[in-house]
Amino acid sequence: MVPLLFLLLVPQVVLDTSRAVPLPPVVVTATRSARPLTEVPVPTQLVPAEAIRQSGAARLSDLLAEQPGLLLFEDHGTGLMIQGFEPDYTLFLLDGEPVIGRTAGTLDLNRFTVQGLDRIEIVRGPSSSLYGSEALAGVVNLIRRRPEAPLAASLHARTETNSTHQLGTSAELRRGRLGASLLLDHYRTEGYDLAPDVFGPTAPSLRDYTADAYLTWDLPRRSLLSLALRRHQQQRRSAFALNGAPYDEFHRQMDWSLHPRLKQQLTRRLRLDVSLYLTGYETRTRMTRRADGALYYADRFSQAYRKLELRLQQLLTDRQLLTLGGGAIEERLEGDRYAGRVLARSGFLFAQHEWTPRRWLEVVTGFRFDAHSDYAGQLSPRLAILIRPAETYRLRASIGSGFKAPDFRQRYLVFTNAAAGYSAFGVTRLREELARLQAEGQIAQLLIDPDRVTTLRPESSVAFNFGGEAVWFDEALMLSLNLFHNEVRDLIDAQPVAQKTNQAFVYSYFNLARIYTRGLEATLTARPVSAFTLSLSYQYLETADRDVLKAIDAGRLYGRTVSGRDYRLRRSDYGGLFGRSRHSGTVQLRWQPTSFGLTVALRGVWRSRYGYRDVDGNGVPNRTDEYVPGYSLWHLTVGRRLGRHLELQGGAFNLLDLRRPALMPFQPGRRWFVTLTVHV
Amino acid sequence: MATRTFLLLSLTLVLLAACDSSEPLDETTPVEAVRVEDLPADPATPDPQTGRPVGTGRYTFFSLRTGEIVLRYDEPDRSDSASTAWDLAFQGTNILINGGTSGPGQGGAVVLEVPFDEVTEAPADDQFRVDGVDECPNGVKRAVCPGSGNGWYNYNPATHTVTPIPGRTIVVRTADGRYAKVRILSYYKGAPDPGAIDPEANPSRYYTFEYVFQPDGSRRLQ
């Protein structure tokens, strides 16, 4: 079925097989229809299986960190930053369905093994017109390998610095109409300690298990039934000292998903896609005093997400494809920080029209409407155009809107920090919890009238992306450019609403800030000979809080020097949003001499300084000591096939052993690794 | 006790250097900045029951006119709080003026978004705010508004630190109707660089600030 739609949509230029041009890879994330990568009207990046393997990375964090235009953002885990947005604003999909389980907005990329993936598709700019909430900065779609071989199995074993080991197996089977693939993966590390004089490790020891299965059944009349199952579990052990006494910390998280899906060709031109997606995520944290095992802190959290979606794709005349879809989502939440259970329901409708009015023109328009029980409905339109004046270059332009729903904390949190004494309440809980604290005599003063706290609006953006690609010398040289501007409003932030008698504050959440991120992404790929590929990428990024700019322009924002002198900030003194580097880039060098079965991949990641704290009390990065200095990381992987069944790979991440324990505790330094893969 | 002695000693020295009382003040005499170090504003001590840091909730009262503490937070006898002997009172991040609902004086204050050195004159009296009269953005009626970003400080929830907002100057009308300007330098004992606060060595609720008091009753603050 995919080929049918695909063939009908692919323009003649590509279909001219007499020219023996290899077909470009097909992607599905940008428009939710199968399209060649070169014919997608929004900026899309593909990490194919080969690149995944050649990087030598074990976890998704290492793999994505070296991709052009992507940066990591450390906050309660390793998250992804696309177009200058924090990890909360990027939607992660596993075969098209959302992955849940974020901590403080970050979906920890260390949770994912790269094993079993066929490819990763990364769409930049908002795709809320197709996917709804969270698809504001971009969408990352992890796509499983489909069972294709009659019978194949492989075993992989990997060892890395810091007693990090990975052991796994994958198998695939195809018999007539049935196909099955299975993945088992175990990853463990003993963590590391960058500050031996401080009690407790810098990174915890970790045990991680992933089991994943994918079953397909070709039914008569061009129907396809598939079932995807996944279970993942991770345990972390750590220790810390409090007032000189040692404490142990144990953290366990588990997530699972079940995804049956039916694709049914109703007529030659109409296809139905029914998808049920059930997923769950739970965590448990315990901190105990080592001396006597007394419980210091315990927390449980569980989240369940159910989604039913129906999608119709109708091929119209004149190369038009219409997609109509709708569905319902139910989310359940239970946890110590949420005081009981929470149930939220939402429904959505979306439509998309893909049209090729001329050979050189593609127009994709679409919108989605999300209605939710807890916050105002959201309409997300998008218009994207691809112009192909000649075979050697193409232009893309898109305008769209993205949104991110208020998260669970912002809506339902009921939390008091025992050590620091402060409290934070989600907006739906604020009134009753404040009344409770007042009745208990814990409130010294109200800083805001609780009646003025209303429901939250989703954070929303309007985004422009404009760019294109040009190829020269029979695709030996390729340049890809994209200019972007994201204007975001109603960003939600915590604000104190009351002060307690213990002087600590009570916080709740408000639609406050307006920000923008804008810049340029450029990638130059050269393949002078077929065995050698050099890819250079650069990103220029500007980010700012609109209210900060207003204060600077009004002359109301000051900095304080180390010697205590106050000075008026100019726009050029303002370092933008925290964690954003103005300049960043990647280098990828691949050498694959045909004769030795050898692969050499050298990659470099570079970023300029970025703000990480406020010292002088103005809330923005402006002083030198408020920045992490710029740095570069280099990774080398060498792989070699040994006969038909064996593959050996080795190398190092962070080859130059960059370490900054205080500023970058997440960077352990150089990590050597060796991987052996056995194919059966 | 040692702190107090040091405080008073340093104040005395600064004041001696600042105003020589033998010479009469006139228009041309520049007023000098006075620096007050580690004024204790109800520092928290761990609760013996829970271990949580708690304060007494009481204020430390300070006179800008004499440059001395009128009444410390840990003084059980609170009778001086109802007098016009003080101009500013400090407790945690709260600062009160001697006027309105806080005291019997003519006190008032206004937080200007102008750096200390550039404040040459006190604004007109209608700009001054009074405790219990003028409402803050968060609904509280206070001359120096409480809350992060509203008055003299920003609170950083990531590091749990209170930092004076650069470029903000508190212009104070004293209990007897004269004017002064105040710049808060630190909320932590020893006034460490805000990037290097050690919770052990630099406990919070110790104010270090500088101020200029105009004794001649004029608005001139330079």
Write a brief structural summary.
Chain A is built from eight helices and 38 strands. Chain A is mostly beta strands and 680 residues long.
Summarize the structure in words.
The complex is a heterodimer of chains A (680) and B (222). Chain A is mainly β. Chain A has a single domain, classed as TonB-dependent receptor, beta-barrel domain (Maltoporin, Chain A, Beta Barrel), CATH 2.40.170. Helix content of chain A is 8%, strand content 57%. Chain A has a 22-stranded antiparallel barrel. Chain A is globular and about 70 Å long. Mean pLDDT of chain A is 92; it is low at 1-20. Chain B is mainly beta and 222 residues long. Chain B has one domain (2-214). Helix content of chain B is 8%, strand content 30%. Chain B has 1 helix and 13 strands; from the N terminus they run αβββββββββββββ. In chain B, strands 1-13-12-11-8 form a 5-stranded antiparallel sheet. In chain B, strands 5-4-6-7 form a 4-stranded antiparallel sheet, with no helix packed on it. Chain B has a two-stranded antiparallel ribbon with strand order 2-3. Chain B is globular. The N and C termini of chain B lie far apart (34 Å). Chains A and B meet through strand 25, strand 27, strand 30 and strand 31 of A and strand 3 and strand 9 of B.
Looking at this protein, list some descriptive labels:
heterodimer, A: mainly beta, Maltoporin, Chain A, 22-stranded antiparallel β-barrel, 5-stranded mixed β-sheet, 8 helices, globular, B: 222 residues, 5-stranded antiparallel β-sheet, 4-stranded antiparallel β-sheet, 1 helix
